[in-house]
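Whether sequence alone determines local backbone shape is best considered at the level of individual chains. The sequence in question and its structure tokens are set out directly beneath this paragraph.

===
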Amino acid sequence: MAKHSLTDKDVLKLLRVDDIVTYFQPIVYVAGKKVVGFEALTRGVKGVDIIPPLELFARAEQKGVKLEFDRICREKAFQEFKKVFAEFPGSVLFFNFDGSSIDKIKTPTGHIFRLAEKYQLPPQNIVIEITENRVRSLERLKRFIDYYKDLGFLIALDDVGIEYSNLHRIPELKPHILKIDRVLIENIDKEYYKQKVVKALTFLAKDIGALTLAEGIETEDELLRTMELGIMFHQGFYFSQPKPLETIYVDEVYNYFNGLIFKFYNKMACYIHNRKKIVEKYKKIIDEVISELSKVDCKEFEGILKKWVIKVPEVECFYIVNMQGIMVTNTIFHKHTKVSKSPLFEPASVGKSLFCKEYIYPLISGIFKVYVTEPYVSLATGNMVITISKVFKAADNKEYILCVDFVSSEE
């Protein structure tokens, strides 16, 4: 049998449903302890070894039958999934749609809807995966998505987060699911920048009312980290390689769930406990500083801050603002603080307004008396910090806000 190549005779088989080989990979919801569906993946034609889908579609395009081949793959997926659906009517079919064809049609043809009717599959149990960066026309892409959403189908944007993803399109398209590309998932437990990108994507998904799915999960650490970051659904070799439908044993996937949930619970409990200890330690420092600040008026603030910044190595800097958000002290740095030389980063000084800072205006408005940020890049230094701010009353009977930037350990 030929390996990773197709003869012209094999290419002709691409247009016969019975000759197409389709594998499936489970989509799992760990927290819910269930397999929610299966993605259909074309893997070649009968009599030929497994072939990467990119090669299959490339050969079909060379022969001018790419659209026809895409439709044949889709029909095979529906045909095979019908067998699963008969046994598990709550399961969902995920399949890839060749987005490049959307630019060629003014209005959707309804082919997917007719297939669903033919195989008696409810539209709400079918997810159409589209790689949006392959579609040049946003207008036609939106028309296609809206058409199938109105018919009850679910829409997933595939390969989100890779180099050419047009993230600005996502809020306008309002998909049901964002599929985070495996490039971002690989080694995510070790690579900090990937964690931040994925976390941002989960925030975006929440804002537009979409679910998130991480593809390419291969290790337990990758899985647990993506769960921490808010990813809901998962797919990858860790659970199962793509296989013929009849060889997938859902019970094998179920065996993972209880142990994973227990590990996730322990991991998050440990994280919360450690963060709580750190924050309590930082708040204790702040309370001790405030106990001295409250006995003097604002003219003496800087002297007290300079004394304290020497004592506490975890502190990057101190500064104090009034209840209008205006700096009443300069930024007082620890002597070991490294400040970026870029003009983008500049410490605030007396008279500067910090009202717009997330840790200032909630205190001024009276919503909070103390505020703790997530780690972020300080515009004063360019370093990762956590800021804790707290309202206090000084000897002049006026209220002020003490702000302390602590060195962040998250890297």
Remarks:
- The mean pLDDT is 88.
- Residues 250-293 form the longest helix (44 residues).
- The radius of gyration is 28 Å.
- The chain is about 35% helix and 20% strand.
